[in-house]
């Protein structure tokens, strides 16, 4: 229990239900040591906050969320992107203020054709949607998207002119089985095989065990993985490129835990699920580092 407590934010455990507590107890605070020295690199990137609304909302609730986001003060010197369900994207795009860009939560990997139910990156570009999320763990795990599929979608979206938030992250079984870095290596390799222009890619590290569980990675746990990802990027792309790529953290981020996470050298922002549906919390997360207001 001491290990669990020390790995979580203060007060978090007492607010959890029993299922969440069990999940939290299975999360080791100390993960296997890094295979390489990662201390030589640090981020120079602009802070980035994404709100992934997932499959949530009604027209009425989306209208209210947009109005509430429009009423809030957010920093002018960061990037903020919200990802509504497809059917509400155009409404949000047309009505949200300029501080926020919109994203789709998925895209297809061909421009057009007989792909019933899919929406292509070209269509998003045509409809004024500049961002897309690829490789979210819910699509990997619930819809069977492989590393290869995620790589192809990411590469295709970039070629179609979109910017991409590409998600990586391990399950609890992978972490506990000592496969954290191997899992990340394979996920990143699929991106290396398909991405030409890294200037339009944000990487979201989202440990599956932290998504929607209330069990946030500790700042040290998140930093350790972010530093590893940046080192891998640096080895493949060069130090200057890797330092400019945003590596953001997702998994039970709230306005209570974001400030401490944001102090870590290699945490360049957040991808927020549940808390992005509440405007005051999301606005507070956008202000996690404190900055000049828009
Ligand atoms: O999956 C996530 C963002 O993409 C994280 O979700 P939660 O913030 O609800 O844990």
Automatic annotation (TrEMBL):
GO molecular function: triose-phosphate isomerase activity
Family annotation (InterPro entries): Aldolase_TIM, TIM_sf, TrioseP_Isoase_bac/euk, Triosephosphate_isomerase, Triosephosphate_isomerase_AS
Top-level taxon of the source organism: Eukaryota
Any Gene Ontology CC annotation: cytosol
Subunit structure, as described in the record: Homodimer.
Family to which this protein belongs: Belongs to the triosephosphate isomerase family.
Keywords: Isomerase
Keyword Isomerase attached: yes
Protein name: Triosephosphate isomerase
Pathway recorded for this protein: Carbohydrate biosynthesis
Keyword Magnesium in annotation: no
Any one of the GO BP annotations: glycolytic process
């Amino acid at each position: 229990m001491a290990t669990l407590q020390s790995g979580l934010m203060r007060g978090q455990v007492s607010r959890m239900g029993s299922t969440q507590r069990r999940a939290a107890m299975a999360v080791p605070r100390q993960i296997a040591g890094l295979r390489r020295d990662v201390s030589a690199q640090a981020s120079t990137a602009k802070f980035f906050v994404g709100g992934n609304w997932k499959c949530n909302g009604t027209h009425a609730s989306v209208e209210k969320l947009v109005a509430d986001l429009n009423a809030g003060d957010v920093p002018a010197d960061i990037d903020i992107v919200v990802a509504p369900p497809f059917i509400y994207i155009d409404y949000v795009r047309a009505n949200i203020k300029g501080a926020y860009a919109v994203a789709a939560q998925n895209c297809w990997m061909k421009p057009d054709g007989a792909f019933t139910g899919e929406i292509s990156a070209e269509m998003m570009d045509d409809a004024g949607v500049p961002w897309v999320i690829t490789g979210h763990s819910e699509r990997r795990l619930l819809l069977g998207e492989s590393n290869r599929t995620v790589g192809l979608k990411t590469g295709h979206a970039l070629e179609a002119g979109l910017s991409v938030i590409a998600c990586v992250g391990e399950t609890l079984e992978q972490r506990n089985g000592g496969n954290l870095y191997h899992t990340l290596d394979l996920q990143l390799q699929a991106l290396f095989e398909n991405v030409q222009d890294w200037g339009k890619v944000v990487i979201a590290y989202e440990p599956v065990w932290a998504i929607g569980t209330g069990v946030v990675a500790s700042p040290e746990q998140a930093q350790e993985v972010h530093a590893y990802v940046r080192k891998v990027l640096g080895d493949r792309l060069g130090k200057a490129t890797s330092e400019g790529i945003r590596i953001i953290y997702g998994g039970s981020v709230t306005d209570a835990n974001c400030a401490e996470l944001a102090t870590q050298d290699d945490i360049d922002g957040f991808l927020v699920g549940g808390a992005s549906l509440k405007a005051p919390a999301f606005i507070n997360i956008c202000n996690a580092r404190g900055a000049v207001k828009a």
